[in-house]
Design a protein that fits this description.
Layout: H1 13-27, E1 32-43, E2 46-49, E3 58-59, E4 61-64, E5 68-71, E6 77-79, H2 82-94, E7 98-99, E8 107-108, E9 111-123, E10 129-140, H3 147-150, H4 155-179, H5 191-195, H6 197-200, H7 219-233, H8 245-265, H9 270-283, H10 287-307
Antiparallel strand pairs: 1-2, 1-6, 1-9, 2-3, 4-5, 7-8, 9-10
Helix pairs in contact: 8-10
Length: about 300
């Protein structure tokens, strides 16, 4: 996910995402942006703030009635450019739980989520502010483990069990979402799935990158990973703009008004009106129907504009 800092072509998905975000911001005019970042790990089903004063302090999950799941007391950092957000990522990575196993000398013993939150302020024709919020979750999942291969005992074994349990819970959520028939999605079975609820079954666009290798020794793990990713690919989400509900309602009214005006324009003007009248017989329309449609549309426009 992180890759190597140099040469540039070896940089990973996370730093390339940072670069893309700030390139877009620098090229965008007439908009105000605020970028914030946070970095957490889920270690043995405990949540740690990797950018906090005490990276080992256990944090609690809470649910807000409007914004959904959040981590209480999580630190959020405002960043102004790529170098600042890179520094935060590097700082957090130093605080992650890492240990050696028989399969990996630098094995991640936790899942991590680096979250980039963007607030975008635009002004309408009347100069009023409209704020939209976008969130990018960059998730690094620890790989599933078999104790017989990793050789883990003691704390390493407990860590592996916690990793496998959370990955199993994530797999169950993905399965329920893909199935489409399940009335209950088991998000609450793991803190990982609770934190990723809006990414998995919400209004987000989601991509999963599977890390596999060609070694015969890891054949079973490779097949399992590919099946896991294949199921995730079948999740169908419906992305939408995250804006103030009042702004969204105004936008809906504006679009409806424009559509009605276009429809009315078809019947305004003698040439167009005459053409419709001539086609009335072929289309099953008569003058009374056209006039009735025009009156109903005009009434609807007045009603909607009055509600604004």
């Amino acid at each position: 996910m992180s890759g190597a800092p140099n040469p540039p072509e070896l940089r990973g998905i996370i730093p390339l995402s940072f670069q893309h975000i700030f390139n877009h911001i620098s090229a965008t005019k007439d908009m105000q942006f605020m970028v914030r970042a946070s970095f957490i790990e889920i270690y043995n089903e405990n949540i740690h703030d990797l950018l906090g004063e005490d990276p080992k302090k256990k944090l609690d999950l809470k649910r807000h009635p409007q914004t959904g799941i959040f981590v209480k007391d999580l630190s959020m950092w405002i960043v102004k450019d790529v170098s600042e957000i890179d520094d935060l990522m590097n700082k957090g990575n130093k605080n992650r739980a890492v240990a050696a196993t028989a399969m990996n000398p630098g094995s991640s013993r936790s899942h991590s989520i680096f979250t980039v939150t963007l607030e975008i302020n635009t002004k309408d024709v009347k100069g009023a502010d409209h704020i939209r919020t976008s969130k990018l979750n960059l998730v690094d999942l620890a790989g599933s483990e078999r104790a017989a291969k990793t050789g883990c005992v003691g704390d390493r074994f407990k860590e592996g069990c916690a990793i496998n349990l959370s990955l199993g819970a994530l797999g169950n959520v993905i399965g329920a979402l893909v199935d489409g028939k399940s009335k209950h999605i088991p998000y609450r079975n793991s803190k990982l799935t609770q934190l990723l609820e809006d990414s998995l079954g919400g209004t987000a666009q989601t991509a999963m990158i599977a890390n596999v290798g060609p070694a015969r020794y890891n054949y079973e793990e490779t097949i399992s990973t590919l099946r896991y990713a294949s199921r995730a690919k079948n999740i169908k989400n419906k992305p939408k703009i995250n804006e103030d509900p009042k702004d969204a309602l105004i936008r809906e009214f504006q679009l409806e008004i424009e559509q009605l005006k276009k429809e009315l324009a078809m019947y305004d003007g003698s040439a167009v009106y005459l053409e419709v009248a001539q086609m009335g017989k072929a289309m099953g329309l008569d003058s009374a129907t056209v006039e009735s449609f025009k009156m109903v549309s005009e009434e609807k426009i007045k009603r909607i504009e009055g509600r604004r």
